[in-house]
What we know:
Number of strands: 23
Number of domains: 5
Oligomer: single chain
CATH topology of the largest domain: Metallo-beta-lactamase, Chain A
Structural class: alpha/beta
Distance between the termini: 58 Å
Strand order of the largest sheet: 14-13-12-11-10-9-22-23
Shape: globular
Radius of gyration: 29 Å
Number of helices: 24
CATH architecture of the largest domain: 4-Layer Sandwich
Largest sheet: 8 strands, mixed
Amino acid sequence: MLSPIVLLTAAYALGIALGQYIPPPLPFYLLLLFVGLAVIAIIIKIKIGRLLLVIFLLFGLLQSRAPQADPLGCFVETDFLTVQGEVAGKPNVSGEKVYFPFTVIRANENKIRQDILVFLRAGKPIEYGDKLELRGRLSRPEKLLLFSVTHCRKLGSGGNWWNKVAFYFSDRFNDVLVQILPLKEASLLGSVLLGSSVSPLDPEVKEEYRKAGLIHLLVVSGTQVSILIGVCLSLAKICRFPVWLSVAVATIFNLLLVVVTGGGASILRAAIMGEIALVGQLFDREKEFSTALALSALILLLFDPNYLFDLGFQLSFLATWSLFFLVPPLTESLPEKIPGRELFALSIGPLLATTPLIVYNFNQFSLAGIISNFIVLPWIETLVVFGFSTAMIGFIFLPLAKVLGGTLWLGLAFLDLIAKAIAALPAGSAYVRQVPFIWLAVYYLVLLNLIKRLATREGIKRAVFLFIIVFFLPLFIGGEKGLVVTFIDVGQGDAAFIECPNGRKILIDGGGEESDKGRGYDRIGKMVLLPFLRKQGVNKLDLVIATHPHADHIGGLNEVLRSVKVDNLIDNGEVLNSPAYRRFQELIALNKIRRVVGRVGMTLNLGEVNAKILWPSDLDGTVNGNSIVLRLAYGATSFLFTGDLDDQSEARLLGRGENLRSTILKVGHHGSATSTSDEFLAAVSPKEAVISVGKRNRYGHPSKKALAKLAPLGLLMTKDVGAVTIRSDGRGYSIATERPCRSARNSRPPD
């Protein structure tokens, strides 16, 4: 029988969830409904428990908050914008840039309140709470609002005392770790003890731990809280403190941990549960886990209903829930003769509980976590206790902490070695296609059924078989039949992803930041292109084509070459002295990618899809004019990809007499006035045209001249409709856009 707290929490959470999909009713009508229910309950004598469930459900609906408005959206990719506001979080340094969350309160003299992520050149001292006036440009890769700053002026100081105290203690803690250990190991230990949000790790290291199934070690949660409370209670017992004093000491350190870590959802959940357990000791009551877990959730959701949609909150509760409801029956169901069955159940239980959320949110399916957790779990708590102890000694007597740091380094180096080795396993981790929400719901229903069967020992084989099918289903979600071409919205740049009927995957260009200031990574590639490919379940690209070496075409490709296995690469052979191109060459050599220079007449082996390179014949034109031109044909549907081809090269291409006629034209050079001549357009004679272009870009693309020429066609621009996906069965084609499209011409179902 579920406790009342569990039921009330479930009702309240359901109300919050429903409130995101049901138009929010006016508080007045909800109050009338509360009163009406109370009157009806008195008249017909409804049980108070059922009435409370309905009230909590309605209260959740009332508390549910609508998605944040987007007043700054109209300023995305304008020339310049001046904003005023306050630094809302701790600034972090990455290469030559410092970045931080920023709350805008004024934009171009308009009162606006919205959160953005700010990037500016490192060197200027920026602290949490600083009130700044910033001038720069807004961009929106994926759902993030990024602000690249050209001018910064400090107006004053602000911020709340809680965050200032948290940042002060976390900075002191990190300073001690850096003096005890080398920088990499200090960051790793800080992440294990306080979470990666307090002690930032290199993104590539975090990705390795995610692939190895050890990312939970870098999120401070129940493990750290339970160890801290356990150590405090043990020391208090040795000192023979009375129970109330032992609880008080443990509470102080528990609250201190919350302060230092900044009070995220997972640590708050663990801290609240820890306090419930401590208070239970005062009253000599046996701890009821489900009630404690539900009560901690209810307190958090009353404080902020949006925690329900926080992935850290969800993963933390599921992992903790699995330790008490999944691990015990799993352990009991395993034969006693199996050595380490408790450890195996402890390794696999949280993985089974959290995997679907990881798959749904990150498209990443990992079985490596079973191996890595089986190796790491027996000694990770010892590492945490030793790490905490060494850090505390460092505050008191640094020389002794430095001596102990040698042993600590060995443990951290071993942990890192395990993560690297398991992340490198070929079948350890894979990206899968975006799974529907219905799979998530079915998975947890099947998991609950499995737990029930394991507990009752009835129908176990059938339940296990059904669970295995549902668990591995994402690995078998295949691509669509036919040819699928997606023009990805990368802002002011080009990128197209092609899936052939035979399963081959091709990427033409990758967008990228035009500024190309050599920071070592490209935000468009990291925040737009890679997430897109992962949602398509891309673990390997058969071919990458770089039409020409400008940064807005190859900058994003660099992130792909860095993170995705690429078998073959074709470029035009042109050399450009730029940071983006130098990284491009380095990554090709480092990953030993087979590289071919594309020239006129080259054909590609793509099965049923005919693919031929039509340009360039040489490199005697401009950088844009030397762009690779590729024509794809699948039955009656054909595509012409033109890179940034200019009108002079178009004329030379027309002179060669090549067959340019195509159903869909990727318009050259983002629709500039120097591309897509009348003669060229007549030769291609497309039915649809796609322009990959940034919203309100500083070049004025597309030009009015180009738009006038393309007006009679089915014209689609990524700045307006987002990603454009065209599917063909060889007889006809259909078009889908990321955002609603006004033109009826943009939907042509297959014949």
